[in-house]
Amino acid sequence: MFKIGVMASGGGSNFKAIIDRIGEGDLEAQCKFLITNNGGCGAVGHAESYGIPVYHISGKTHPDTAAYEAALLEVIDRYDIDLLILAGYMKALPVSLIKRLPDRILNIHPSLLPKYGGKGFWGIHVHEAVIAANEKESGPTVHLVSEEIDQGRILAQTRVPVEDGDTPETLAARVLVQEHALYWKTIKEYAAQIGV
Ligand code: GAR
Predict the structure, then answer these.
(1) pTM exceeds 0.85
(2) How would residue 118 be classed by pLDDT, with cut points 50, 70 and 90?
(3) Has 180 been annotated as catalytic?
(4) How far is the CA of 114 from the centre of ligand 1 (A)?
(5) Residue 143 in contact with residue 153, Cβ under 8 Å?
(6) pLDDT digits (tens, 9 = 90+) for 38-85
(7) Probe ligand 1: pick from 86, 109, 112, 170, max atoms within 8 Å of CB?
(8) Residue from 182, 138, 180 nearest 161 by CA
(9) Of 56, 62, 109, 127, which residue is the catalytic one?
(10) pLDDT at residue number 102
């Protein structure tokens, strides 16, 4: 049984998909905490329903950058986690945090990286760019987090067709279904690979 912590910002559907798989016994892990930078994050209610501690740490709660980083590290260090899972976390991680958990931080991104990754490519903006470029396929990527945004080693991808008449929203919804199927399996495989 390995231990994970999760960071999320938005709707929280990836977080829910992961903790549901843990609840079903498909993913033999314990989720020790949720960190969010957004008090309205959809993941908060899901965490509370599973009794998972929630920490709200953001520029609002900690306006001083050093205090913000220290607060994040304090939570990370308090729980002895094997993997940190970014599940729709929309803020770049401080380098100090990335260095604390080398090759132990996973992210899911809603495009076939290396395409449509990096600064400015997050959430719906990714799908807007994919449609504007007339791509015929897209799909989620799970990758390790390194100091260069969206450039860490790719662990898994799923190809999803872009349909005629797709809007960023319809494409996002089709990709999101595949994210939910891909992320927990990739976490499971990676944990087995690194022996945690
Ligand atoms: C997901 O599509 C995820 O891939 C994307 O945000 C969405 C969050 O949905 N993440 C990024 O763009 C990170 N750069 P969720 O809150 O419902 O899981």
Answers:
(1) yes
(2) very high
(3) no
(4) 16
(5) yes
(6) 989 999 999 999 999 999 999 999 999 999 999 999 999 999 999 999
(7) 109
(8) 138
(9) 109
(10) 97
